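Task 17 of the worksheet. Students: predict the tertiary structure of the chain below and write it out as structure tokens. Keep your answer in the requested format; marks are given for formatting as well as content.
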Amino acid sequence: MVKAIIVAPYYEIATKLWSPFLRGWVSNELKKRGIETILLWGDDAVPEKFNQAIQDPDVRLIIGVSHGNETTATGQYYKPLIWKGMQLIDNWKNIVFGLVSCLVGKELVPWLVEQGVPYGIGEVTEYWFMAEDKPRQGNDPEEDQYLKYFLYAEYTFAYRLAEGFDTGTSYMLMLQEYDRQIQLASKVDEEIAYWLAVDKENRKAWGNPQYVINPKGVKTWIEVNVKTIRLPHQKIDTVSVTGYVKAEDGSTPKGEVTVTINDVSTQTKINEDGYFVVTQIFQWDRNEEKTYNIQVVYSGYTNDKTYMPSHYKTSVKVEPEIIPTVLKITSVKTSRDQSLVLFDIEGILMDKDGNPLQLKQVEVDIGNGELYRYTVVTDTDGRFKLHAEKSYPPLQTKTTIIAHYSGDDVFQGSSDTVIAEFPPNWDFIKVILAIIGGGITILFIILSSIL
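Model answer:
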């Protein structure tokens, strides 16, 4: 049985905020991964109990929280647990050091590695964190909306070690998780993101990056397929994650997976074939490229055998989809009132499949001469109507009408053009003809008198 020592002092504000999660969440997660924990909680986080625990030949990992300085990591009431120059027993040559403790990366951790400790990580400056104003139960990082970012990032190292990854890979995955938590925190509080970045930058590692603590259990891996559908009409994306949890020995794992798509998490049991499926619907405001970050975590399972936890990460991009439209002028009726031409125009706006587009603005231009532009809005059936009046020269009998929909981030623009006909201004023409006729009569009289 592989074991981990968890140092969890509980005596002042920093340890009271952090340590409950060591006793609850971290201990439980390691047990799921087949690691037995030796919890040094509160008054047990003292030199006597630590020295007793370190002698257990199955111990492979030391994690937890500790006040420290360049040469010393302390426990309850600042009592030194580990210090530069101490006598190390042989068990230390199998143990990975991963305490969260200020400044121990300056001298203590490098010195431990020089003495034969296979691998260690430590902060070369102070380790900073933010938390809410009172201690929590500690069973789930989500209990503290500030501290959770630091916990998720930091204990990635221990969890990946427990899952069978080597120290170098586990350290790299921890730094990647710090980056992910920085991005998440930046959406909520820039100060949290800032301190996460400081901690990540100063969290250094020493030792053999190929060292493995060799947990017992059957290793697992996850195979994932992601499908996305964009429905522009409804302004939603559907993201479906399907996959299998598979075991190294060919058996079928049991248990459940947690599928997280852009911070929306869903837990679901895997079936008798190791299969799972999760579908999430996401609403959007703009029809633009969107990235969905996907993480699948298998939490492990222990019954007649232990299946080790595993995880999978990927991301998919959904491209914008612009829908073609069809705009038609369906009817143009005209009449004339002397110089004015009266227009009654009707039309319809549809998508490529014939579905009406409601409450869309359509511009109607009536031309041939000074351009008149009108704006109308389609009704629930995608139809629009316009009554307009425009003056034309007496002899003009045709004009161009153009209807135009400019489109938006979902629908393409479209237009239609018709030639409208209308009668000339007969009243004006009659007057002109009368004038001309009168002029001819007068001319005829004059000519007659001359002759």
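Marker's comment: The chain has three domains: 3-207, 220-318, 325-425. The chain has a mean pLDDT of 93.
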